[in-house]
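Hi everyone,

Forwarding the result from last night's run.
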Amino acid sequence: MLTTIQLERRLLQFSIFSSLMFAMMGIGLGLWMGSLVIVFDGAYSLISLALTLVSLVAAAYIRKPAVAARQDRVAMIEPAVIALKGAVITVMCCLSFSSAVLAIFNGGREVDAGLALLFGVVNVLGCLATMWVMATQGKKIQSGLVTAEINQWLMDTVISGAVMIGFILASLMRFTPWAEYAVYADPVMVVIASIYFVIVPLRMVSGAIRDLRNVSAGQSQTGELVNSEAK
């Protein structure tokens, strides 16, 4: 029977392994095909990997006996890590948006829609499987870090789904009078994904900042109470 600490650590390690696989596949295939949206998907997985490593380090730090005894410090670590995650993802969305807009003004990008569609299907199924494992096992523990990971995988799943749908539309466009506009499908998908998905990390940041303020306010009230009793 796994303890809560062991399960949290294993879920974070599982998330790291999955992020590494998707990052390698997405960035490698995206650069080879010249697809911005696939590189965007792979870059998101790579950033998720780095942020999960931060979560794993934070989880290990929180569980140290000397730190665990300081509940005020523990209460601030989780929201601080979540705020960092949200901020980094927000920056990534902004950079991806600017790159896609430049690609649109430069005439779009020609991409092998068939191979890209295959990548989209594999990616969606993989992300769904990872998110399902994280969500199912995460119910057994109360961990803000694991919940943040599940939110990341939800975003990754929807991004991959949008990529897959976009390439389906791009493939169909080639058989219509608008075939010449199919080259814009790749950067337009990145623009849409960047605008839509920046909302989630911004909510993560705002929620984490609110939690940090609540913890700080609680500590201030406790300090004032202690000082008044001492007087």
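The mean pLDDT is 76.

Cheers,
N.
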